[in-house]
Design goal:
Uracil-DNA Glycosylase, subunit E, 5-stranded mixed sheet, 42% helix, 215 residues, alpha/beta
């Protein structure tokens, strides 16, 4: 992709997370800025070992301006704690930085972003990952997995599998926590999600050990 029709021109030449967040505030690379309350950029430790990438901010995130602060974010926090992943070593972000929704009565109902919107927003995510250089990249849900790991990727078949990616030494996908909230067997789905995150914890530990032994 040559960057035309995307946010590429807005990315600072020598980016830091702070510069990226500030630059993204005024992003109008796709039409979603017109209906989203604000850009919801990624957040987390500047030296995060792992980057979690979801689809897009939800209603709560759009209002508050922070990622993963709604019900799905709270479930993610609980799962991270159970998997013994230090939340301060985690960076959370989304493929798309504006909330896409349609009205239904007084509610705002989530709509899946299309490929045009995903492509327009992609330079922000690429820049975040380039700055952070995470040891592990975790895609949450089908939209993130197909955007970053290939359109043929199927979370239902390949969740928890290590996948080659130029974005990080270790890349893996699992379900989005919002799908667990919608599931009938919520407790069983949560336990499986924690098992996936335990694999992430093992990858972080292994990468950390290799880094320590090479010093």
């Amino acid at each position: 992709m040559d960057g035309e029709g995307t946010a590429a021109a807005l990315v600072p030449a020598r980016p830091s997370l702070k510069k990226l967040r500030e630059a993204a505030t005024g992003c109008k690379a796709c039409p979603l800025w017109e209906t989203g309350t604000q850009t919801v950029f990624g957040e987390g430790g500047a030296k995060a070992d792992v980057v979690f990438v979801g689809e897009q901010p939800g209603d709560r995130e759009d209002i508050e301006g922070h990622p993963f602060v709604g019900p799905a974010g709270k479930l993610l926090d609980k799962a991270l704690e159970e998997a013994q992943i230090d939340r301060s070593q985690v960076y959370v972000t989304n493929v798309v930085k504006h909330f896409k929704w349609k009205p239904q009565g007084k509610r705002r109902i989530h709509q899946k972003p299309n490929w045009r919107e995903i492509a327009a927003c992609r330079p922000w995510l690429d820049a975040e990952v380039a700055v952070l250089k995470p040891r592990v990249l975790v895609c949450l849900g089908a939209t993130a997995a197909q955007a970053l790991l290939g359109r043929d990727f199927r979370v239902s078949r390949q969740r928890g599998e290590l996948v080659d990616s130029p974005l990080a030494p270790n890349a893996i996908a699992t379900v989005h926590p919002s799908s667990i909230l919608r599931a009938e067997d919520r407790e069983a789905q949560f336990r499986e999600f924690v098992r996936d995150l335990e694999k992430v914890a093992e990858l972080i530990a292994a990468a950390s050990n290799r880094s320590s032994s090479s010093v």
